[in-house]
Amino acid sequence: MKVIFFHCRQLEDELQAEKRRNEKERENMMEEIVQLRLENEKLKSILSQNLSEGTASQVEGYLQHEAARLTAENLVSKLQVYRCSQLNERRVTKTNQLAAHL
Fold it and tell me: What span, in angstroms and rounded, lies between the C-alpha atoms of 95 and 97?
């Protein structure tokens, strides 16, 4: 009877020890889950920031491209206006010369 009692007591002690280990492991896992959630939120924030910065960079690049394109168009337009004014001056001069001969 004492042997059975001793054996039961030993099994109960082992069971309690395993229960404590499992509880400790559970606590560690819960702490790890909290840490992983915090890290996940931090990474989400970084990703969101990177995406918005990427969008800002794309917009800035587009605006720089448009500014360069408009500047080039403006130069072409100024050149065309200058050529037209020179042609107009020649025509006026030619018209005045022809009018003087009549």
Answer: 5
User: Cα–Cα distances in Å, from 30 out to 8, 11, 37, 40, 78?
Assistant: 32, 28, 11, 15, 71
Predicted TM-score (pTM) of this structure = 0.49
The dihedral through the CA atoms of 35, 37, 43, 45 has a sign that is negative
The four Cα atoms 85, 90, 94, 96 give a dihedral, to 10 degrees, of 50
Write the CA distances from 75 to 7, 61, 64, integer angstroms. Answer: 100, 21, 17
Give the pair of three-digit tokens for residue 62: 């587009």
Q: Which two tokens stand for residue 41?
A: 């939120």
Q: For the segment 8-57, what is each residue's pLDDT rounded down to a tens digit?
A: 888 888 899 999 999 999 999 999 999 999 999 999 988 888 777 777 77
